[in-house]
Amino acid sequence: MASPPALVTLREEIAAAAERLAPYALRTPVVPARALDDDGRAWYKCENLQRTGSFKIRGALNKILSLPAEARARGVVTSSTGNHGLAVAEALRLVGGRGTIVVSAAASPYKVAKLAKAGLEVVTHDGDPMAAELAARALGERDGRVYVSPYNDLDVVAGQGTLGVELLDQIPELDAVYVAVGGGGLAAGVAAAVKGARPEVRVVGCWPEHATAMLASIRAGEIVEVEEEPTLSDGTAGNLEPGSVTLPFCAALIDEHVTVSEAEIARAMRDVALGDKLVVEGAAGVAVAGWRARAARAARTSVVILCGGNLGADLLARTLAA
Questions:
Q1: Fewer Cβ in 10 A, N or C end of the chain?
Q2: Given pLDDT bands bounded at 50, 70 and 90, which one contains residue 38?
Q3: Are residues 169 and 273 in the same domain?
Q4: At 102, is the secondary structure helix, strand, or coil?
Q5: Could you give the CA distance from residue 231 to residue 221 in angstroms, rounded to a whole number?
Q6: What is the pTM (predicted TM-score) of this model?
Q7: What angle do CA 35, 41, 45 make, to 5 degrees?
Q8: Which residue, 97, 131, 148, sits at the end of a domain?
Q9: β-sheet bridge partners, residue 204
Q10: Distance between CA 316 and CA 310 in Å, rounded?
Q11: Closest CA to 206 of 316, 285, 279, 296
Q12: End-to-end CA distance of the chain, in Å?
């Protein structure tokens, strides 16, 4: 669905984002995934060790850096289940500015508390994450402030794509990438960066069975709304904003689709914590579980993106005890 000119433009924007973000030292390590494989086939890209605890700082900071100083001073508006909001707060701290975040009433209390501590004005909106996104965009339009989308923005997608640039440098023999998919910003950016240099690399999109909005939209060829159930992967929950720029990129660039159960996500989180001594949140567990679902025919050298590590003590304790 993504036309060649659009892909070329995104790849150019990713290259520009890599230069723009270079002074901020966002590069994260790639380490062996010993809990998954003893033969050196599987690696983790540790965005759980990233500034603010997730990959989201890449896209948020790239967007904030693209704004004029007066727009940052006026204040930006955003919406998030947690990680994107933390990233926007950190980006504003780094370059100056203020922000308001609209969160769904269903958002993790642990992450909402962190958002308030990070310095954002927090507005809670009844309903699901999609309703909160639409309310945040409307607030920005009403007040003349820039809305910083978690995914529906090419500057944000390009920032996330810098992760793919790093992967090619860190694992030159890369054969496949496993990535959890929510709004599609990370998957689209990473896939565009990786396939721009290595078209043969397989991109495997991973979804929790309880939250498959992007997958349903890919299959329908247009954005569709789906009913979702609670999931450990709250970072990928929610339907897509109408007109999202990420759908055509995800449809064109994701090679395989895999869905995983809540039990598989919990097991993945537990095994990464106990086996590799890395704390990861549910969305990262989705990618790990996705690798396991395809392990019998996994490529020779695979990278599983541990997209975040922000979860509360209660949830961590329950996951480890499961």
A1: C
A2: confident
A3: yes
A4: strand
A5: 25
A6: 0.94
A7: 70
A8: 148
A9: 178, 256
A10: 10
A11: 285
A12: 41
Cα–Cα distance list, 318 to 202, 243, 286, 314, 322 (Å): 34, 38, 17, 6, 6
Q: Classify residue 241 by its DSSP letter.
A: P
Question: Helix (H) and strand (E) counts for the chain?
Answer: 13, 10
**286 and 159 within one domain:** yes
CB 249 within 8 A of CB 186: no
Q: Which structural domain range is residue 49 located in? A: 4-54+154-321
Region 36-63: mean pLDDT is: 94
What is the pairing mode between strands 30-32 and 42-46? antiparallel
Count: domains in the chain: 2
Residue bearing tokens 């395989």: 256
Same domain, 178 and 86: no
> Which one-letter DSSP state was computed for residue 170?
H
Exposed, middle or buried by CB within 10 Å (0-12, 13-18, 19+), for 95? Answer: middle
Letter for the amino acid at 49?
L
Please name the amino acid found at residue 179. Answer: V
Q: What is the reported pLDDT for 118?
A: 87
Residue 213: both structure tokens together:
């909005």
Q: How far is CA 149 from the centre of its chain?
A: 12
| Cα 133 from Cα 113, distance rounded (Å) | 19
| Residue 138 and residue 162 share a domain | no
Tokens of 172: 């030159």
CA atoms of 150 and 295, how far apart (whole Å):
31
What's the CA gap between 290 and 180, in Å, rounded?
8
pLDDT per residue as tens digits for the range 121-148: 999 999 888 888 899 999 999 999 999 9
DSSP code of residue 308: B
Please, is 280 exposed, middle or buried when counting C-beta atoms within 10 Å of its C-beta (0-12, 13-18, 19+)? Answer: buried
CATH classification at residue 127: 3.40.50.1100
